[in-house]
Amino acid sequence: MILTGALINFATVVAGTFVGLFAGKLLNERIRTATMSAVALITIGIAVPGLLDSSKPLVPILSLVIGTVIGEALNIDAFVNRIGDKLQEKFRGHGKITEGFVTATLVFAVGAMTIMGSLDSGLKNDHTILIAKSVIDGISSIIFASTMGIGVAFAAISVLVIEGGIALLASLVAPLLTTAVINEITFVGSLLILGISGNLLGITKLRLLNMMPAMFLPILFCQFM
């Protein structure tokens, strides 16, 4: 089935979240704070490899600038935060919903493994890459959920929508997602992941959701550069 890889990834993120929620209850505040710093370092480690393959520096620059303008005009951050606030009321006591959702979505749903794995699922019915990614995401979700709470589980929906969408539309989007495009999308996404690290460490207060449109613009700009 085309969606097998995406569904497995969805399940591992949800399962990892609940393991992390249980583990988080065993941690005192000092350990939670230290673990949050560790999560920030992990996100840096995830981001760095994606910064190595960009060969068109103008593409990510234009993508981030124009994408941020679009995101700010739409005010995606405020919209998602309103949803997060409603979920926060429903799941009071289970961590910062919006922070967990945004952090995990950017980490789990951005990158070459997401794109290539989804294309393989859709074009070849080969789920090897997404299954390998599921193992990584499952472990990461345990760590994230132990400090950020149940919001991490909602990122599984983002994973399913993005991976499943690419898999189902693989025959249509594959010609657009050349190696150069994937590299630039990964580069922009990795920069956003680095932004997460800064936010987690309290160094920055970036509205990363308003920058997310930048991830799709390399598809356009790479056609002309």
Q: Report, as a whole number of angstroms, the end-to-end distance.
A: 37 Å
Helix content: over 70%
What does the radius of gyration come to? Answer: 17 Å
Question: Spans of 5+ residues with little confidence (pLDDT < 50)?
Answer: none
Instruction: Please give the largest β-sheet.
Output: none
Query: Helix segment count?
Result: 11
Question: Overall pLDDT, averaged?
Answer: 86
Overall body shape = globular
By helix and strand content, what is the structural category? Answer: mainly alpha
Number of strands: 0
Which strand-content bin applies to the residues?
Answer: under 5%
H/E topology pattern? HHHHHHHHHHH
Explain briefly what this protein structure is.
The protein is built from eleven helices and no strands. The protein is an all-alpha fold.
What is the fold's blueprint, element by element?
Blueprint lengths: L3 H21 L4 H19 L10 H17 L1 H15 L6 H12 L3 H13 L3 H21 L2 H18 L1 H4 L5 H22 L16 H5 L4
Helix pairs in contact: 1-7, 1-8, 2-7, 2-10, 3-10, 5-7, 5-8, 6-7, 6-8
What does this protein structure show overall?
- It is a single chain.
- This protein is mainly alpha-helical and 225 residues long.
- It has helices at 4-24, 29-47, 58-74, 76-90, 97-108, 112-124, 128-148, 151-168, 170-173, 179-200, 217-221.
- The chain contains eleven helices and no strands.
- It is globular.
